[in-house]
Amino acid sequence: MTSILESLLTVLNRREQWIFNLGRLSATERLCSLLCELFERLKRTCHVIENRYVMPLTQYDLADIVGLSAVHVNRVLQMLRAERLIELHGKRLTVLNIDGLRRLAVMPNSQRATA
């Protein structure tokens, strides 16, 4: 029973954080936060190999999640590529600089470990 409650609290905390993100963060901060969270979750489940993973979401999906247009998501992804923070080839996303991505995501240190 305790583990179920802990799981529910974790889900609620994440949802609360995303509501905050939608209202207060810039487009770049929102998308970087999502990419960092995906990276950390997939890494914990051994789906990240050499900082590379299969991106399970389309740009339209990303746009819906972070409250932007797909065009805006594309622009931010282009900027992240130009800054050499990520590489994106088809569905394969490589995180070249996780610390740089986290800085743009303005993730607090306490959240970085649990994202």
Question: Can you offer a commentary on this structure?
Answer:
The protein is mainly α. It has helices spanning 2-24, 27-44, 59-66, 70-82, 98-105, 109-112, and strands at 52-54, 86-89, 92-95. Strands 1-3-2 form a three-stranded antiparallel β-sheet.
Provide key terms for this protein:
115 residues; Arc Repressor Mutant, subunit A; globular; three-stranded antiparallel β-sheet; mainly alpha; disordered C terminus; 3 strands
What is shown here, in short?
The chain is mostly helical and 115 residues long.
CATH topology: Arc Repressor Mutant, subunit A
Main sheet: strands, sense, barrel:
3 strands, antiparallel
Q: Separation of termini?
A: 24 Å
How does CATH name the architecture? Orthogonal Bundle
Principal-axis shape equals globular
Structural Rg: 14 Å
Strand content: 5-15%
Tally the helices: 6
Q: Can you list the strand order of the major beta sheet?
A: 1-3-2
Highest CATH level, the class: Mainly Alpha
* Mean pLDDT over all positions: 85
Structural class based on helices, strands and sheet pairing: mainly alpha
Count structural domains. 1
Unreliable stretches covering 5 or more consecutive residues:
109-115
The SSE order reads HHEHHEEHH
What is the β-strand count?
3
Helix-residue proportion: 55-70%
Supply the CATH superfamily name: Winged helix-like DNA-binding domain superfamily/Winged helix DNA-binding domain
